[in-house]
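Ticket #4471: structure output looks truncated?

Reporter: J.K.
Steps to reproduce: submitted the chain below (192 residues) through the standard prediction queue, then opened the result file.
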Amino acid sequence: MQVRSWRRRMSVALLAGMLAVSSVAPAAADTELRDTGKVGAHSLQDTFAQPGARCRYTGASSSTSFEGPLTAINVRAPRIRARSGTQRVGWRVIVQRKRPGQSWTTVRRTAVVTATATTGKDAKLGRQRVAVSGPSSPGPSFRVLVKMIWYRGSKVEGTARHRVDRYLVVAGSTAGLVESGSCPGYTAWVEG
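Returned output as attached by the reporter:
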């Protein structure tokens, strides 16, 4: 009888251990930089499987290679919910550039796009496309910050700022690798 009881306790302990290991939270997708004021639930979809932004390049391509500058960044809309009840919310894209040996500087800001959200339903927001002028050879990198805004009437009640950390490289019509941290200003690759 004691052997069965011991086996049962071991089985329960083993099962509990396996459940604990399998329920570990996934790695953080984007980087939350800061919140100000009063904000509701919010997040970015930004993983290796579904990057938060797409780096679009145009240039010369063949069946096995591509070379060209960054021309646009398409940014996935954030998930934003109201802080309470029904609320107007918005978002904008901030594009920053970093040249070798220098710090990040803001080069583009989109207009704020607004929609209505509730505490139980995300605002219906679409992607934003930002035109970018990449160089004609390797050099600077570009990254995206997403600013989310909550309004009370016509006044800003709170903001949240996140940095996109995953970028899908799209050269011509071919989707390539997922980059971490930023879009290269110029890309060149050879399939092989």
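Triage note (M.O.): checked the attachment and the full token line is present. The first helix runs from residue 2 to 22.
Status: closed, working as intended.
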